[in-house]
Amino acid sequence: MKELVRRQLAQSIETMSAVLADEAIHEAVVEAGQITAHAMKHGRKLLVCGNGGSAADSQHLVAEFVSRLTVDRPALRAIALTTDSSILTAIGNDYSYDNVFERQVEALGLTGDVLLAISTSGNSKNCIKALKLAKKMGIHTISYTGNGGGAMKEHSDINVIIPSRVTMNIQESHIALEHIFCMVVERFYFGPDFGDKPTTISE
């Protein structure tokens, strides 16, 4: 069992090392942060969606924006499209599960907003439909994926593609880069020196 632990840690480190060496990923995260900060400064918001573990990531990331990441600061406007069980089940029942994010983008999205869709495969149908509608509405689109980007790649203005086809390793890299994305937004929003003195761990 200890060998299993070592093997899985090594695999995670290998994926993260590939991410560390990929300049295109770094540039995409910075560009995504800059666009999102600009949108927020102009009264717009971040919408985030995903399924399963990526739904959990959506909620986790939005919590960092609305509460805080490492430093006390004003709340930043962000909404997870994965949290309202009545909305999700109504759309899934009345229309299709493929429409659960698209319908919310239609209801909540404004021109100049940002939609971040998270999918390890890059092929989640409900994320693709949300991205397509967002682009029609003048909403900036960002995708965090693996698997070469999948079908979501062509519907996104910015793509953060983890060089892996292993779901859990993609997710591990996603959460690291989602935290960094939040930090980049904070610096573009509040200034380049923001966050140099992080608060201590809170319970």
Automatic annotation (TrEMBL):
Gene3D superfamilies: Glucose-6-phosphate isomerase like protein, domain 1. Pfam families: SIS_2 (PF13580). Residues 36-190 form the SIS domain. GO terms for cellular component: cytoplasm. Substrate binds at residues 51-53, 64, 93-94, 119-121, 124, 171. Its cofactor is Zn(2+). Its EC number is 5.3.1.28. It is found in: Cytoplasm. Binds 1 zinc ion per subunit. It catalyses: 2 D-sedoheptulose 7-phosphate = D-glycero-alpha-D-manno-heptose 7-phosphate + D-glycero-beta-D-manno-heptose 7-phosphate. PANTHER family: DNAA INITIATOR-ASSOCIATING PROTEIN DIAA, SEDOHEPTULOSE 7-PHOSPHATE ISOMERASE / DNAA INITIATOR-ASSOCIATING FACTOR FOR REPLICATION INITIATION. Belongs to the SIS family. GmhA subfamily. The reaction produces a racemic mixture of D-glycero-alpha-D-manno-heptose 7-phosphate and D-glycero-beta-D-manno-heptose 7-phosphate. This is Phosphoheptose isomerase. The gene is gmhA.
